[in-house]
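Please review this one:
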Amino acid sequence: MSTRFGFDTGTTHVGMAQIEPIHNTAKLWQITMHRIANTMSRILAIQEILKNCDLYFPAKFDVIIEGSAYSKAFRQSELAEIRTSAALYFERYGGQCYFVAPNSIRKQVLGNGRKKAHEFWQSEIGPDALAALACSYYVKEK
């Protein structure tokens, strides 16, 4: 397994994880931001946040971005813009991005599609960072 990123989308809380199996390390980010009403400002804000995270990009890496929860319509347009902004950022540095439904990630990584990452890994780490960690452990079938 190579370096992988996980990205959990939110309008005010975003989680990100970077795992580097070669060094046996994981970095987690629990990001809180104010809700941004303007689409372009929201897209640029996500790009700026990612730019300031001090990320390491190998030549080739995968990014698993938590996709839509199909049963929920709440703010899906805003979340889609945030997902797209993150994907474009990672693609610029050579990342192969995959959008995966949350229940698919949970089912594969946690063994249960309904249980959330923060319920599985009971920790002081923020719930969005743990959701991103679950994303980073997801293995996309090619």
